[in-house]
Structure formats: C-alpha cells, structure tokens
Amino acid sequence: MKKWLQFLVLITSISATSALLASGGFSDNSKQAMPVVANAKWKTECSGCHMLYHPGLLPERSWNKMMAGLDKHFGENASLDDASRDEIARFLALNSADKQDNRRSNRINQSIAAGATPLRISQTRYFTSKHDEIAASTFKRKSIGSAANCVACHQAAEKGDFSESQIRIPR
Ligand code: HEC
Ligand code: HEC
C-alpha cells in the first residue's frame, strides 16, 4: 500500500472508530474480525492437506457446492462418510460469509457476483484487490507454495484473523 494511502486509511479508521465510540459502541456490521469458530470434525477432516479455511471466507453456496463434490476436490479425492460430510456442511453454511456479521466476511461476500459460486477464496475479487501488490513469484516461494496458503503470511489465519499486525511474508 502506498504511504499516503496508508495514512489516509489510518485517519479514516481512527475517525470511524471515534465515531463509533461516540455513538456508544460497535454495531454488529462494524465488527472487523471474523469470530473464532470450532467444530471437531471440520478441524480433523479439513486440515489434513492444507490449512483450515475459516467458514467466513466464502458464501454458503460455495461451501455447499464444495461439500457436494469432495470426490473431485481440486484434483484430490477428499470424500467423507455421509454423516461427517453433512455435519461439516452444516457448520460451514451456518458460519459462512453471508451468514456472518463482520466487516471482513461482508466485504468478501460483496465482492462475489450474485450468480457466481467460487470455490477458491484466492480467486475472489476481495482477495485479488487485497494482494495486488504481491508478485506472483512471491506466492510461489518454497516457504509459501501458493496464494491459497494464507497461513504462510497470516500467522493467525486459521482463527480468521487477517489483521495487519499478524502479517509476515516469509523469505
Ligand atoms: C485430500 C486432500 C484434501 C482434503 C482432505 C481437503 N482438501 Fe481442500 N484442497 C486440497 C487441494 C490440493 C487444494 C488446492 C490447493 C492449492 O491450490 O494450493 C484445496 C483447496 C481448498 C480450498 C480453496 C483454497 C483457495 O482459496 O484457493 C478450500 C476453500 C478448501 N480446499 C476447503 C476444504 C474443506 C472445507 C475441506 C474439508 C471438507 C478440505 N478442503 C479438505 C486438498 C484437500
Ligand atoms: C505471500 C503472503 C500472503 C499470502 C499467501 C496471503 N496473504 Fe493476505 N495479505 C498479505 C499482505 C502482505 C497483506 C497486506 C496488503 C496491504 O496492506 O497492502 C494482505 C492482506 C490481506 C487481507 C486484508 C487485511 C487488512 O486488514 O487490510 C486479508 C483479509 C487477507 N490478506 C486474506 C488472505 C487470505 C484469505 C489468504 C489465503 C487464501 C491470504 N490472505 C494469503 C500477504 C499474504
């Protein structure tokens, strides 16, 4: 981010925060961070091949589509027994970007066209707009692998925390 832009964002967020404080607190929609969510099955079954992606990163229709096609999941077979699949699908839907009330999820949701059902967070317009200054070669570093490996740069990504203080790009 350009220095002057960073400054502008800082000033804007400070004034937004003071306006909120003055108005007596944070309205639901102003919650910046995604809430910490947990489901034991999700944690075991969806973290074997990659990091755990917070449900608030995609809308319900995306999770539904993904959970309906686990046998062909990005070139892998990630099939589950019906009971586990249904439990995880319910958990993802309940906590999805369009069921959440925090600024991050709302923005992601708004960046997806009504008729679109993306399966990759890393291909949403929200994601590309936030990472347009990162070179493709950076994402390909051995220590990172791909844009989908959020946790390589966002230490607290699995908790749904993408705040700037938690970012460190590995060499
Ligand atoms: C057998 C391995 C495997 C399992 C198990 C698995 N995945 Fe994946 N998943 C992959 C691969 C491979 C990719 C593509 C990764 C890449 O491009 O870097 C992927 C990508 C994704 C992405 C897209 C990331 C992005 O934004 O580009 C999401 C979301 C995802 N998986 C969710 C899940 C969920 C939810 C579960 C549990 C139901 C799950 N995965 C279980 C292998 C797996
Ligand atoms: C190569 C490291 C890297 C990877 C991998 C990465 N990010 Fe980022 N991300 C960054 C950097 C650096 C910024 C800050 C950009 C800026 O402020 O100009 C950022 C910004 C963000 C922001 C905005 C933070 C804010 O408060 O403005 C979000 C949300 C985010 N990333 C989510 C993700 C998600 C989700 C993934 C995985 C699908 C991901 N990132 C993968 C480096 C990365």
Mean pLDDT: 88
Q: What series of H and E elements makes up the topology? A: HHHHHHH
Distance between the termini: 20 Å
Instruction: Give the overall shape, derived from the CA principal axes.
Output: globular
What would you report as the Rg, rounded to the nearest angstrom? 17 Å
Number of domains: 1
**Bound ions, cofactors and other small molecules, one mention each:** heme C
Number of strands: 0
Task: Give the percentage of residues in beta strands.
Answer: under 5%
Which structural category do the helix and sheet elements fall into?
Answer: mainly alpha
**Low-confidence spans: pLDDT under 50, at least 5 residues?**
14-29
Number of helices: 7
**Which percent range fits the helix content?**
25-40%
* Biggest β-sheet strands, sense, barrel: none
How is the secondary structure organized here?
Elements: H1 3-22, H2 40-45, H3 60-68, H4 82-94, H5 103-110, H6 125-130, H7 136-139
Helix pairs in contact: 3-4
The protein binds heme C (2 copies).
Q: What labels describe this entry?
A:
mainly alpha; 171 residues; binds heme C; 7 helices
Please, could you describe this protein's structure?
This protein has 171 residues and is an all-alpha fold. It has one domain. 39% of the residues lie in helices and 0% in strands. The chain has 7 helices and no strands. The two termini are 20 Å apart.
